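thought: user wants a sequence for this fold. calling inverse folding tool.
action: design(structure=
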């Protein structure tokens, strides 16, 4: 039934691509994505894609510039090989945090990346939990932004019975936390913080009641873990019974694992939009859920030109 579909992957998240292919019952496309001796990205597509519906799965995660170039060059290769439609499946969209001018003469790099992907030849983009919703408007092609909420919700329901409060680590995530909490019948709290600089945050105040509650901090990503660790400490000081963290994208830069292991956080729930590095794999606090089922269903619906809107929950 999926005879015209071809799924390829760069080097950023091959395991996720294999899971998606397994769910759809199609093989992973044959492609060599390597580098020349001077570091230039080299792409060779080893099967026919003429007239095919091509999906390229590539998270633009660490090393961000390399994985981004792999994606762009693979899109260009597919376009020049006469693929009928090219969908860039970007589970984690790098540079998403640079989505507006926060100081004079600052770039809006999320928009630049959108332009690069479009210019390379992508006809559609499929992503998950974009850091800012307005990034969809940076593209002049269709963008489907899925949410990991159903996967995270299912895990929370099975691991926490009641007496839960959902905490947003900043004001920007309040809408996400409120929607998440409403499905659990949980109350909402907000961390009021002041950011001292890039990757630095200082917790200032907690808005809401967390005393004698099981707390779930909800965020779209964890980078250095500074925000969630400080938030967990403040929540425990306010009388929270335990602190769990849920996030979609485990960026987990090098200080993150040590901070998590030495923090008040009981468990960190993440998804496989980004593969974990070795330190994170060995961390007993981290539990990984797969988004392969959600992404494979979205790919199937896009291929058949069916509605994807029911997945935006």
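)
observation: tool returned 313 residues.
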């Amino acid at each position: 039934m999926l005879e015209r579909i071809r799924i390829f992957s760069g080097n950023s998240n091959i395991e996720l691509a294999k899971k998606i292919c397994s769910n759809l019952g199609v093989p992973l496309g044959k492609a060599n994505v390597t580098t020349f001796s001077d570091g230039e990205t080299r792409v060779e597509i080893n099967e026919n894609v003429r007239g095919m519906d091509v999906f390229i799965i590539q998270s633009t995660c660490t090393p961000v510039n390399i994985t981004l170039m792999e994606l762009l060059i693979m899109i260009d290769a597919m376009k020049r090989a006469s693929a009928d439609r090219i969908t860039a499946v970007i589970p984690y969209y790098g540079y998403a945090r640079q989505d507006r001018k926060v100081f004079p003469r600052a770039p809006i790099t999320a928009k630049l990346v959108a332009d690069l992907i479009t210019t390379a030849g992508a006809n559609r983009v499929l992503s998950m939990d974009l850091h800012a919703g307005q990034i969809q408007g940076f593209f002049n092609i269709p963008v489907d932004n899925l949410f990991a909420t159903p996967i995270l919700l299912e895990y929370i329901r099975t691991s926490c019975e009641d007496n839960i409060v959902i905490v947003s680590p900043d004001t920007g995530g309040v809408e996400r936390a409120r929607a998440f909490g409403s499905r659990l019948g949980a109350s909402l709290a907000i961390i009021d913080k002041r950011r001292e600089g890039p990757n630095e945050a200082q917790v200032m105040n907690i808005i809401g009641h967390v005393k004698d509650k099981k707390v779930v901090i909800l965020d779209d990503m964890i980078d250095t873990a500074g925000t969630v660790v400080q938030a967990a400490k403040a929540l425990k000081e306010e009388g929270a019974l335990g602190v769990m963290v849920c996030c979609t994208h485990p960026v987990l830069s090098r200080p993150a694992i040590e901070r998590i292991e030495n923090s008040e956080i009981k468990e960190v729930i993440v998804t496989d939009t980004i593969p974990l590095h070795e330190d994170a794999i060995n961390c007993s606090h981290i539990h990984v859920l797969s988004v392969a089922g959600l992404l494979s269903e979205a790919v199937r619906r896009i291929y058949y030109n069916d509605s994807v809107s029911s997945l935006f929950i």
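thought: summarizing for user.
answer: Here is the designed sequence. The first strand starts at residue 5 and ends at 9.
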